[in-house]
Amino acid sequence: MREPIRCTVCGTATLVRVQLGNVLMSYTLPVPCRGCETNMIVHVVQDAEQGTHDVTFDGAERLSSKEEVAFQIEASSEFVVRLTHAGEKISVTPYIRVCTLAGTEAVVMLFQRLGQFLLSCHNDWVHLRRVNELWLRGRTDLISQMMQAEFFINPKITQSKLDILMVLHHLNLRFLSPIADSSSLVNYGTEVLREISQLPPAGLKSIITTSDFHRYADKLFAQIDKYVAIFPRLVPAYNLTIIDPWKLDDEFFRDYGISSIAFEDVKSYYLDSFEVLGDLLDLVVALNNLKHRGSPEAMLQIPGSKIQTLSEFRQTTTRKMEYVKHGETFDKLLGPILGTPYRNAIGHMTWRYEPFTQVITMLESERAPTGKDITLLQFADLVRRMFGVVLQAWELIYHLQKLALIIQGETMSKELPVWLGDAHRPKPHRTDAPKRKRGRKKKKKK
Ligand SMILES: [Zn+2]
Question: Hey, what long-range contacts does 60-67 have (CB within 8 A, 24 or more apart)?
């Protein structure tokens, strides 16, 4: 859909090419003006049933469609967009472009999953979030009835705390599976469980009884809840999951960007997740100490560091990251994400953003560049991957919480393994699932 508009601030005319959505029916996109570099805003409301759409602008007025316009810009709530140079004309739509890059079938399958997730965010998360909150607040007395009312869970399998934790974990995984790469998450869980079960029992028990898993789970849950809230604006970042990695080179990120978010929208998610995952360092280091040196207290010796014991490590605030960069077993969880070099510049607000190249320049101070620039699309993708690490950390904490309950003498009801077995069995393919309307797709090709 093409709309010539004029900026009400500086009078510059721009041709906005809006890609209508597959799964998002109501959205707001910022459109930077070449003349004054401030954002005009486009609001789109689509009616999937009627096949109609309504587009309105803030900070811009419509021009007649015959008017010659010097600047073109793409806007899409779901696809990566072309970052145009002044005077550049665009010939294909974002949808066609991503189909060309990734294959139409991959695009259709991706949007089926994302659509399913958006639907369950709308229908299920409100209830599932409350069940999680009840668990985190220790109100197990209310969970059983809520699980029965909202998720048809037989109260026989939510008798003990251990039951509730396991059923809740299953419900959470089921909810997140469309966007969480659930097979790799389950594989990670299996691997973690295997590693934990091989640890020396006395050391493991001491880690479990001295750790506050509830606090970790509480903070990780808050990051999951925040991600669910920003997810609709991160949809274009999921395009990258279906494009061959070798195509995602520097040139790709020079040519393509994301128009559905502002840096402001996602940077706090990055900072908060960084802090929450950083909090897990003490636990990860304790597990590494036990696995590689036989005791939770036995620290890795690092040149130039005087830290000898876990207690000393817990009290220090500097150079903690260096302890998870040596390829030890539990490093895998945090290393790649906490190793990203953007935290300080973002935290200290020493970054600059250029709206047409979408390059975020990270500065050491007001003037000194760090050479660690990133584009908005790359940053959105980093946030997506960071969410994956939050989920893995949540998985690790889940397994440790389960062990903590077993140590406390909690038992599982007899019916639960049967239910879990059934619940994990693949469902027969549903042939009555609603098909996406074909008409909607055609319209986008104009
Ligand atoms: Zn302007």
Answer: 60/5, 60/6, 60/7, 60/8, 60/14, 60/31, 60/33, 61/5, 61/6, 61/8, 62/3, 62/4, 62/5, 63/4, 63/5, 63/6, 63/13, 64/4, 65/2, 65/4, 67/4, 67/13
